[in-house]
Every structure is written in structure tokens, then in C-alpha cells.
Amino acid sequence: MKKATKKEILEIKEILISNYSDAVTELNYNNLYELLISVMLSAQCTDKRVNIITPKLFDKYPNVEKLSQANLDDVKELIKSCSFFNNKAVNLIKMATAVMENFEGEIPLDEKSLVTLAGVGQKTAHVVMIEYAGANLMAVDTHVFRVAHRLGISSAKTAILTEVELTKKFKTDLHILHQGMVLFGRYVCKAIKPECEEKCFLKEYCKSKGSFKVG
Ligand code: SF4
């Protein structure tokens, strides 16, 4: 597939920023604790499903301390409609325990510390920091990956390499671009039946030419 030129990338960047300058996550949360848990649950699971699950979970376990003392089977039961709920339940409790033991009960807001927590990889850490702190970071999920490839901004094979490429090419405003690409991929440049004619405002930059093999 053709690559986007430097000029095209700059233009795409400007258009995404102007369309999504106020974009935020569609996960429902009230504080850093709820955001971190929602992002952890959202791996391989839709935001919609996570938003159905979390009210009861947060009601029963409203903070790190309570979650660190939680019964594993109870947490599994509360999140069982989420994919990989067994592993996620284990990780949620381990994460809360580590925050209590290593961070005095305060969830850290830096990448180095966040990735020491169970179930928190680089992508989860970046999403949390983008959303909560407006950090100039990129995170590549299935939507960002698909959009970056269809627009010819990246040809990298993995999410991590795509993140490196997007970071290098976009440089600034990465938090807005991340949120924008997620929403653009979710509602316009969809994996199946993208809304090329009806909704796409980046059509002139598209390199996929109707062959939607990526995503
Ligand atoms: S034209 Fe279609 S495939 Fe290309 S970026 Fe727009 S929505 Fe995506």
C-alpha cells in the first residue's frame, strides 16, 4: 500500500485535531482508580460491555483498599461477561494489592510505575495517562492500527511498532490524535463496511483504495 507523504501526514494530523479536539474515552469513570480498572477490563472487550460491568464492581469495591481485600470468586462473578474474566479478576486484585503495598494506596501516574502493576502493559499505561493526564503519548488499539494503515501513515506489522511510527511522525498532540483515531476507527473507518462515502472526511488521503485487508 502507498505511504502517506510528510505533507499528507501533517494535513491528516490537523484534520483529526480539528475534528476531535474535545474527544475523551467512552469508558465511564469518576477517578483514576475507576479509569485504570475500566481500561484493564477493556482489553479484548468493548467499552460498551465494560460500562455495563463496572457500576456493580465499583459499588462493591469502591477503592484500591477494598479491592485488595476482595474475594477472587466474587470479582470473577461481577466481571464474568467480560472476555478473559478469570485472568482479569486475578490481575485486578493483584494490582490493588501492589498499589497498597508499594504505592501507599495511591495509583501512580507514571509509565514506569504503572507497568509494574499486574495486568498493566505499556498500552494500558499509555491509555490511562493520555486520558487522565493528557500525556503526549500514543497507544495503538485495533482502531488506531487500522486507521494508521488505511491512511498509509504506518505499515508496521505490530501495534508496538505502529505506536513508535505514529509517535515519530505526529510528534505532538498525541493524546488528541489517539482519542481521535479511536473514534474515527470506531464510527467512520470501521473494520467492516467503513463509511467511506457517507462520513469520511479523510477520503482524499486514503491509501486502501477499497481493499480493506487491514483491521
Ligand atoms: S475512505 Fe474509507 S477506508 Fe479510507 S479512511 Fe475513509 S473510511 Fe477509512
Structural notes for this entry:
The protein has two domains: 6-23 and 138-205, Helix-hairpin-Helix base-excision DNA repair enzymes (C-terminal) (Endonuclease Iii, domain 2, Orthogonal Bundle), CATH 1.10.1670.10; 32-133, Endonuclease III, domain 1, CATH 1.10.340. The protein has helices spanning 6-20, 32-41, 47-60, 64-68, 72-78, 85-102, 111-114, 122-133, 142-150, 159-170, 174-187. The chain is an all-alpha fold and 215 residues long. It is built from eleven helices and no strands. Iron/sulfur cluster (SF4) binds at residues 150-151, 188-189, 194-196, 200, 202-203, 206, 208.
Short description:
This protein is an all-alpha fold and 215 residues long. 56% of the residues lie in helices and 0% in strands. The relative contact order is 0.14.
Question: Could you name the key traits of this structure?
Answer:
215 residues; mainly alpha; Endonuclease Iii, domain 2; Endonuclease III, domain 1; 2 domains; 11 helices; elongated; binds iron/sulfur cluster
